[in-house]
Amino acid sequence: MTLLRPAEPADAADLAAVQIAARAAAPMPESIHPEADVAAFLLSRIGEDEVWVAEVEGAVAAYARFTPTWLDDLYVLPTHQGAGLGGALLGLVMSLRPDGLGLYVFETNAPARHFYEARGFLVTARSDGSENEEREPDLRMEWDVGSVSGLG
What we know:
Layout: E1 2-6, H1 12-25, H2 35-45, E2 50-56, E3 59-66, E4 71-76, H3 85-96, E5 101-106, H4 110-117, E6 122-127, E7 138-143
Antiparallel strand pairs: 1-2, 2-3, 3-4, 5-7, 6-7
């Protein structure tokens, strides 16, 4: 059984583990931060940003971190990818942000690009990566409920 719930400070280490495992398995640059730093950063964002987790059998298997206009993180443990957790979290985020939402995705991460495109996100800008920590090309994608069909 899957449960979506707001993240709590005690979840920070689990969120970091999900992020690092998901990044390692995806066609995207490896995280440049050690797991302990990722956990500390995520702990600092709980309460500042909205952070929701997807639990499977009582364990954190995915999470989303977002602001009023931006999806900063959406990660799913590799062992749970394809089970609908990412779609459930993104659907929740979109329902909480009905006026639209933006995000960045690495250009190399075709599975993520297709995931977002299938849910109505459009590429609105391309970058050479000079503005991100990894220095890798990325795409800005946006979902605007007024101009694009949503939860598809």
